[in-house]
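Researcher: Re-running this chain for the archive, since the previous output was lost when a drive failed. Same request as before.
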Amino acid sequence: NYKYCVVLSPTRELARQTLEDRAKRIYSDSTYFKLVDSEGSRDITTLRVEISEAVTNNRQIVISSTFRSCDVVLELLPIMSGNIDDLLLIVDEFHDIPKPAVVNSGNIMNRVLISTQRVLYVSATPRCYAMENVDAEGESGSGMSEYLFGDKIYEFSFKRAVELGYICDYQLWLPSVWHTQDNENQLKSLSSELLSDVSGFEKIERDR
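Model: Regenerated structure tokens:
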């Protein structure tokens, strides 16, 4: 139960959807909702006034912003930082965080991420592609990765989801793009197996 919540999303559409979802779930006229992006508001002066009034009037605050509008968020966070325990920063789809935001202490988004002690990173595919092999390459600032992301507090794997029946098991086919006389028999065998799988799927669909 945090009084102030700031959610960062990689796209404008996701930022808008997040705010609309929060508005539906929080049934309170006393909550201040604001979308911070090019389609919402980036007027720092107006936002400072509105958020200062919300804080003064003891209102709950929910801000949804895009990654690209972190420059505005950075200006607004000090207004809500009177009590650090009241503020939660949520980074949605955190696997899309750009590499400079993690390794470059001068990056605007990096400054936002380290500006508060309570940050929750959320992703259904928690793999930060831009950061892979950074530690192995020994890049400057690579240690910031572990510092920012911290420890996992919850994980639900594909294997566990299959075991519990939430998703079906699957096979992964990696197509080949070469064709020589030597592997023609292998290709025929693979084609037969694929056609068999498709026929079986079609039969299941008809049976349904």
